[in-house]
Amino acid sequence: MALMITDECINCDVCEPECPNSAISQGAEIYEIDPNLCTECVGHYDEPQCQQVCPVDCIPHNPDMKETKEELYQKYMIISAA
């Protein structure tokens, strides 16, 4: 599953530089995660780095983007090849 950032985001700027796929960017009000680029760090790390550094725990799984670890790895392979 891709991740998402909720309204609890305080715009602390710590998640964006941690994303190895550049899936996190500043939105109109809070940071946003592009589900097409989010692999939950599969292929890079064992744990999603944005979740590890978020001080307010506002980065849950996106229920609209259900993906298996295998699907996330395939997405990682496509992103890495580009």
Task: Give keywords.
single chain, 4Fe4S_Fe_S_CS, Alpha-Beta Plaits, transport, 22% helix, YfhL-like, iron, alpha+beta, 4Fe-4S, 82 residues, two-stranded antiparallel sheet
Task: Explain the layout of strands and helices.
Blueprint: E1 24-26, E2 31-33, H1 49-53, H2 69-81
Structure description:
By secondary structure, this protein is an alpha+beta fold. The chain has one domain: Alpha-Beta Plaits (2-Layer Sandwich), CATH 3.30.70.20. It is 22% helix and 7% strand. The chain has 2 helices and 2 strands. The protein has a two-stranded antiparallel ribbon. A hairpin with a 4-residue loop joins strand 1 and strand 2. It is globular, with a radius of gyration of 12 Å. The two termini are 21 Å apart. 24% of the residues are buried. The model has no long low-confidence stretch (mean pLDDT 96). InterPro entries: 4Fe4S_Fe-S-bd, 4Fe4S_Fe_S_CS, PSI_iron-sulfur_center, YfhL-like. Keywords: 4Fe-4S, Electron transport, Iron, Iron-sulfur, Metal-binding, Repeat, Transport. Pfam families: Fer4. GO terms for molecular function: 4 iron, 4 sulfur cluster binding; metal ion binding. This is Ferredoxin.
Brief overview:
The protein is an alpha+beta fold.
